[in-house]
Amino acid sequence: MKLKFFSFIPHAHKWHNIRISRKGAISPTGRAYFSTHVEAQCKGCGERLHKIYYRDISDAQAIRWLG
Length: 67
Fold this sequence. Notes:
Elements: E1 15-26, E2 32-42, E3 48-53, H1 59-64
Antiparallel strand pairs: 1-2, 2-3
Organism: Pantoea leporis
Protein name: Prophage protein
């Protein structure tokens, strides 16, 4: 039985459904960059993660940086 209040207990996220794409993005300073977008979802709590790296990084490095 999976209880909903367990999502409030801190845990190590186990990311799956990882999508890595490379697009153009505008940084907070207003400059345009070729960037890497990473999206993932936690298996345990269902939390979604969206990160933007304002440089082109490899897929392996993006997965390693998920945390």
